[in-house]
Design brief:
This is UndPP-QuiNAc-P-transferase. Keywords: Membrane, Transferase, Transmembrane, Transmembrane helix. GO terms for molecular function: transferase activity. The protein has about 120 residues and is mostly helical. It has one domain. The longest helix has 25 residues. The chain is flat and about 50 Å long. About 5% of the residues are buried.
Length: about 120
Amino acid sequence: LKIKEENTVMYYLLILVLLFLAELFYFKVADRCNIIDKPNERSSHTKVTLRGGGIIFYFGALAYFLTSGFEYLCFLLALTLVTFISFVDDIKSTGQMTRLLFHFSAMAMMFYQWGLFSLSGGG
């Protein structure tokens, strides 16, 4: 799905509105499913806060990926890993080592995307 130059602004405005509506919808789901963070002595906030709203960012990136001719596959896979483990951690706490494994795997995918594993030494 490619968009024409003259429709670019309208396309991005449409995506913005859709993502905003998705975020509002997510707030209702998170509230209903009790996906919240209650403040404690280590918290930077003082009120109960909804968690997991960052998952909507992923859908924006996915929309770009689907309309860009499937460029940057490793980036999307890395973002998928980080999104998944972050959302799971928002719902129920995951161990530090599990999160670290997911984040290092995502970082390795990005390094591969950028060609940092090649032995040629750059150019």
